[in-house]
Amino acid sequence: DAKTTQPTSMDCAEGRAANLPCNHSTISGNEYVYWYRQIHSQGPQYIIHGLKNNETNEMASLIITEDRKSSTLILPHATLRDTAVYYCIVRPPLVYNQGGKLIFGQGTELSVKP
Amino acid sequence: GAGVSQSPRYKVTKRGQDVALRCDPISGHVSLYWYRQALGQGPEFLTYFNYEAQQDKSGLPNDRFSAERPEGSISTLTIQRTEQRDSAMYRCASSSKLVTGDGTEAFFGQGTRLTVV
Question: What is the DSSP secondary structure assignment for residue A7, as one 8-state letter?
Answer without folding.
Answer: -
